[in-house]
Amino acid sequence: MDYSEKVLDHFTNPRNVGEIPDADGVGTVGNPKCGDIMKMFLKIEDGVIVDCKFKTFGCGAAIATSSMATELIKGKTIEEALQLTNKAVVEALDGLPAVKIHCSVLAEEAVKSAVADYYKRNNIPFDAKLLECTEEGCCHLAAHGEH
After folding, report:
1. Is the pLDDT higher at 58 or at 93?
2. CATH class of this structure's domain 5-136
3. Which of 1, 70, 78, 110 could form a Cys-Cys staple with 40, CB 3.0–4.6 A?
């Protein structure tokens, strides 16, 4: 399989790996069939994601997409972060082999899951539709363990 230089870079030198002990929101999503699991931690101040970290159990593509996702949402508002799509993450990495896209890209779901956790912890009302995945396919299935 051919991986782009960006994918290889984010796999071998992942950004924002780890946990935030006093995270404001934590989301865990996964695809049990493929074995990829992503946990995302958000630190939020005044509606802005001031820090984010991830722990991913999975293949190189899952690690690279997790790393890129944290780079794309850090410093953004919650609303901006919720606009992140799996497609945007893959594009930012200059693409992924098609066989890897369906089960290793969990970024969109993880961000939305962590934001939902933040909203629940702070009793902030939210429309559940806001947190639905934008793309058809594995995204919905992975988040609900139905893949």
Report:
1. 93
2. alpha beta
3. 110
